Amino acid sequence: MAHALRHEGQAMTASGLDVLAGIWLLISPFVLAFSSTLHSAMVNNVIFGIIIGLLALFRFFNPSNGVVVSWINVILGIWVLISPWVLGFGMDRVPTTNNVIMGIIVIILAGWSAFATGDNNQMDRPVV
């Protein structure tokens, strides 16, 4: 029981930090003043910031369930990481650096959350 609670706490911590990452993605185009020519970067970060933040918030309040939500956020983090080149703003240093760093952060935090409670039953079972 204590083992499961400790891991739920890790999932909550990782997911809480992932909520903050989502909020940063949401506000980063405005804080970092993405140029008006980078409309795709701004829309991308606002939309994925909201989605990542909401999924992480769900996971924060449901740490013993919803592991799949963390894995979805890992995939979304990969998208944030590669989006500068897919959407064509990879030559603009500020949004590209922001998205690469934030993509890596989202991947790490969502992965941590997923692995923290991924299969608690498997961890608690005696080896036969």
Helix content: over 70%
Element-level helix/strand string: HHHHH
The quaternary organization reads as single chain
The end-to-end distance, rounded to whole angstroms, is 20 Å
Question: What Rg do the Cα atoms give?
Answer: 16 Å
| Low confidence ranges | 1-5, 120-128
Strand content: under 5%
The total domain count is 1
Number of strands: 0
Coarse structural class: mainly alpha
Largest sheet data = none
Count of DSSP helices? 5
Global shape? elongated
Overall pLDDT confidence: 87
Can you walk me through this structure?
- The chain is an all-alpha fold.
- The protein has one domain.
- The radius of gyration is 16 Å and the shape is elongated.
- It is built from five helices and no strands.
- 80% of the residues lie in helices and 0% in strands.
